[in-house]
Design brief:
The chain is of the alpha+beta class. It has helices at 11-22, 42-47, and strands at 2-5, 27-30, 55-58, 61-62.
Length: 63
């Protein structure tokens, strides 16, 4: 399952969610960034040292 980290109000997160839905992929989205914070947390920074959204996880692959 594809896991997308980012708030849906972010245009770039919306693009990723839209593409995944068009491809018929099963996805889970977790709110991060903006009012949700989380991008400065140690666990998130291990995924994305730039502290930006979206982060896309597919198994062991993190983009």
């Amino acid at each position: 399952m594809l896991h997308i980290w980012g708030r849906i109000s972010s245009l770039n997160v919306r693009k990723v969610v839209w593409a995944a839905q068009e491809l018929g992929l099963t996805l889970q989205r977790t709110d991060a960034g903006g009012q949700f914070g989380m991008v400065k947390a140690a666990g998130y920074l291990r995924k994305n040292p730039n502290a930006q959204v979206p982060v896309i996880e597919d198994g062991e692959v993190v983009l």
